[in-house]
């Protein structure tokens, strides 16, 4: 579904992604692991159109479509192609209501698709029952876990084919992390392809089909979740086992 070849991305003079190549199959949940500063957020940002690569290309193919070159597309174009980002720190609008935050996720089809939008809000509430009845509450008053659910819900309002999540578990209690991960598994079953950036390696490997480790902007280890779980380097560096 997604194929990246030889990607180089810079922030000014700092090279954050170096000659990176990867692919994601349709319906797959791919975890991207690695330490702070490895380039994980930059990679997701590039797929969401927020960072422009200087080299390499990104091809995206939806079922029945011919592959499209989406390298360097604007964020709006990426959303229209079916790629939605749930950013790190969630970036919900604290002083807007839960409902308004969700509506913003559908802004690109607000004119053409008004009728289905309220239906979609209902569907998001089915996925996240904890948000039900809180539509009018200010998003900033929600707990961290509910804000994360709202951020995912907002991304789903765009009808993504591919969901990019940047550290959804950050700052959340273990029980809430489990809830979020279980929701990601459910979403996968509905056919959404997922790229999950996580520092919570254990939680990510539990839900992912495949995973890769990024170091200094490039992929150093990749394999099935089971393979990474039993890899001694992953165990030492990312699972806290000696
Ligand atoms: P983290 O979990 O800390 O976000 P990460 O693996 O997502 O880590 P990135 O945020 O992509 O890593 O950062 C990769 C490199 O790019 C780091 O060296 C970082 O300092 C640098 N970098 C990231 N954003 C910027 C920016 N806006 N300006 C300058 N350098 C940046």
UniProtKB/TrEMBL annotation:
Record Pfam families: ABC_tran
GO molecular function: ATP binding; ATP hydrolysis activity; branched-chain amino acid transmembrane transporter activity
Family matches, as PROSITE patterns: ABC_TRANSPORTER_2
Keyword terms, alphabetized: Amino-acid transport, ATP-binding, Nucleotide-binding, Transport
Domain ABC transporter: 2-241
Membrane recorded as keyword: no
Superkingdom of origin: Bacteria
UniProt record, GO biological process: L-amino acid transport
Cross-referenced InterPro entries: AAA+_ATPase, ABC_transporter-like_ATP-bd, BCAA_Transport_ATP-bd_LivF, P-loop_NTPase
Record-stated family: Belongs to the ABC transporter superfamily.
Listed name of the protein: Branched-chain amino acid transport system ATP-binding protein
Organism: Desulfotruncus arcticus DSM 17038
